[in-house]
Amino acid sequence: MIEEPPAVTIKRQFERPARQSLEALRGVPTPFVVDAMDGRGALHHDIQPLAENATADFHFVGSALTCHCGPADNLALFAAVKMINSGDVVLTATDRFEATCVTGDQLLALLKNQGAIGFVTDGLVRDVSGILQVDIPVFCRGVTPNAPVANGPGSVGLDITLGGVTIASGDVVVADRDGIVVVPGQQLPAVLDRLDEIKRLEAEMDAAVKTGQGFPEHIRAIIDSDRVRYVD
Question: Cα–Cα distances in Å, from 93 out to 31, 89, 167, 190?
Fold first, then answer.
């Protein structure tokens, strides 16, 4: 017989990134951040900006506050409200549950009132008109009017897997129209160190393309080598 789990399990102590680290990533395109992590770090592409809010600015950088909600339940998301620090991004894993939403406009308004700057879920949301009035960036997999309950079990602050990426509270979340990228806390110093080089290389390539050149030399070397076989 399985023992009844706690309604919510909460990890209260975790380290958030330094403000200067977040500022260093502000305005940096998500592809640059991914390149600084060797081409990985983005959540699955089906987690998209709420489509109806097409004109909103979806770029933000913040500290991850993780949350896991069980099927058709959002008690843990309510519990997360008390854990929010100004500048947090609330990431809510639902194991891709689709029969109900995980939140609507009123709960998102509570998150924003506590200082959250963005909300990301692999589940669904509802109350689109109200969410637009709340004016908080929302990334999700879709919309349904079906409602959850608030009974648990769930967790706040513990590691989650969302969009194919394992995320810990205190990781850095970078978002824009291209999607969501998560920088693990232990990789943050290395990512910041590489960004200047990434920006320089991107600027050089942009300039070369605009002058009609810019074919990458390392690609040219492969194409011109004996690694290519012609069959004509």
Answer: 23, 13, 10, 27
